[in-house]
Task: structure prediction
Amino acid sequence: MAKEKKEKRKISRRESFNIYMQNTNKKKLAKKIIIYVLLYLVLFDLAFVFLYPFLTMILDAFKSDADLLNSTVKWIPTELTFVNFKLAFKELHYLSYLKNSLIIVFVATLGHAIVCSFIGYGFARYNFRGKGVLFAGVILSMLVPTQVLIFPLYQMYAATGVLNTYAPLLIPCFFGFGLRGAFFVFQFRQFFMGLPAEMEEAAHIDGCGPFRTYLQIMLPMSKSSILVCSVLSVVWHWNDSFEPSIYLNSAPQLQLLTARIPEMYQKLAQFSEEAVEGVNAAELVINQGTVMAATFLAILPLLIIYMFVQKQFMEGVERSGLTGM
Result:
């Protein structure tokens, strides 16, 4: 009888312990579910905030005139139309201005990737007189906005006779300056400082000079930083409208594609004023859908580029030392 009572007590203890563990597991599971639900709600809210302008742009680009004037049509158009894209393609003179943007982006990015990596390698690996002062100048040029320096730069380019050409936009990129050039120098410096010096020492033992060591060993190892520099340079030069509007003021045929978007908005404002005054809206070409279609066409090359290099770009950001900034 005593043994049976002990066994029953053991069984009851095990059962109570199992019941306790089940309850605690259920509580933990319920807490995890609540945390995940709240987390995904926050993520969905943030995603909607970022995606809302893109969704509005794309949906309005496919709306007809009737849908744009109908206040009940907010998200889903009653019919999809491609007329806005045809009109936007025509008004933007898309192919000619796309060629201008591609020339600027390709040449400027090439200059930044080559020269800024070379300058960053020098700051990271070599000690020379005035190094701290020069690097302080690089950091200072990162902090000073372009608008502050635009007047002396304009005078310099006017004196050399290169205004209304691509020279003011491209030449500084091959001297480590240009649009965000100082940032790229800093980026490459951070990357090269994180590499072990033993590789260069081994190259020197094998008879490699400084330039050969940089070109054949260090530069191929910086592919991730070169990719980050290239993507950022492409985006920043593509979206830049301030410097081209100053240096190419008298040469509208050389303007970039994104410079056409403000003109589209001006035509949209003119359309609104004339529509209010009673002009037949059918005779007017530009409407909100056309402007949204033009905006989408202007950023389409960037979306295509990012779609192909998204994974490599994120890996490059992690490896180049930008996450610690």
The radius of gyration is 30 Å. The chain has 14 helices and no strands.
